[in-house]
Amino acid sequence: MPTLHWLTRDDDLKAAGKAEYRLLTEDEKYSYGDTDNDNIIIQGDNLEALKALLPFYAGQVKCVYIDPPYNTGAAFEHYDDNMEHTMWLSMMYPRLELLRELLAEDGAFFIQLDDREIHYAKVIVDEIFGRSNFISGITWHKKRGKDNSSRYFSITHDNILCYAKNSPMFYVNRIELDDGTKKAYKNPDNDPRGQYRLLGLWSRQQGGSEYEFMMKNRKFFAKRLWLVNLDTMKRLEEENRIVVRGDKLYRKLFLTENQGSIPETIWTGLSNNANAKDELKKLFGKDDLFDTPKPEHLISRIIEISTQPDDLILDSFLGSGTTAAVAHKMGRRYIGIEMGKQAKTHCVKRLKKVIDGEQGGISKSINWQGGGGFRFYTLGDPIFNEDGQIRDTIKFDQLAAHIWFYETKTPFGKSKAKSKTTRSPFLGVYNNTAYALLYNGILHDNSINGGNILTSKTLAVIYKNIGKVKYDKLVIYGEASRLGSVRIKEAGIVFKQIPYDVRTR
Question: Which has the least CB within 10 A, 56, 151, 249, 476?
Answer without folding.
Answer: 151
